[in-house]
Each structure stands twice: as structure tokens, then as C-alpha cells.
Amino acid sequence: MVCCVTGNPYPDPHHIVLECDSGMALKQPDHFQMALSHELHVQIHQVGWKEFESIHGVTQKQMVAETLLAAHSMGRLNISDLAEAGHIPDWLLNEITNFCGEGHNV
């Protein structure tokens, strides 16, 4: 696994922060993580996710899809099983489709 922004190995996983999250300690499920270098993980907490996306030109949702696909390709999880169990929301399925291109099945 590598950082979604830098490509450096040994990322420090970060759970996505969604706009609907307004309370304290609202942590998303583990499959809603993005692979970030430790430095970028610290940065996203320091500047906030909207500023982070602006600085790096990539959205959290795109990075979650990329990380999920990497974990799937390594055999660490099965996206189809997660989707069948209702654990993959439409926004994430859309990001996966955008990342892979039309007609790609996972």
C-alpha cells in the first residue's frame, strides 16, 4: 500500500470525514480509509479536509476509492462482498467506477 498523494510506501491510514459528520468522535468504518503518508495525515488534521483537498487537487472520496481498490487487489478485502452486504454507499461505488473506468467489474 502506498500514499494516495505521494506514492510513498507505509502509509498512515486516515478515516474519511464526510460533510454530515458534525459530532465528536464520529469515526467512519475501516473500509472508508485513505492511505496517506504520516506527514499528510498530520496535515489533513491541521488544515482541515476541504483545504487539504484544495492543496492536493484530490478528494477524500477519490482517495478512499483508490485505497479500497488497492486493498481489494492485494486480497485484503473483497469489494463485491462489501457491496452485497450494503457497506458500500453509492458515492463510493461512483468513485470506484470513475477510478476504474466504465465496464470494469470488481
Overview of the structural elements:
The protein has 106 residues and is mostly helical. The chain has one domain (12-19, 29-100). The chain is 46% helix and 8% strand. It contains 5 helices and 2 strands. It has helices spanning 38-47, 49-56, 60-73, 79-84, 90-100; strands spanning 12-15, 33-36. The chain has a two-stranded antiparallel sheet. Helix 1 (38-47) packs across helix 2 and helix 3 packs across helix 5. The model has no long low-confidence stretch (mean pLDDT 87).
Quickly describe the structure.
With 106 residues, the chain is mostly helical.
Q: What would the keywords be for this entry?
A:
106 residues; globular; 8% strand; mainly alpha
How many domains comprise the coordinates?
A: 1
| Residues in β-strands, percent | 5-15%
Tally the helices. 5
Shape verdict: globular
> Total number of β-strand segments?
2
Computed Rg = 13 Å
* Unreliable stretches: none
Distance between the termini: 18 Å
**What summary fits the major beta sheet?**
2 strands, antiparallel
Helix content: 40-55%
SSE order in H/E notation?
EEHHHHH
Mean pLDDT: 87
Give the structural class: mainly alpha
Task: List the strand order in the largest sheet.
Answer: 1-2
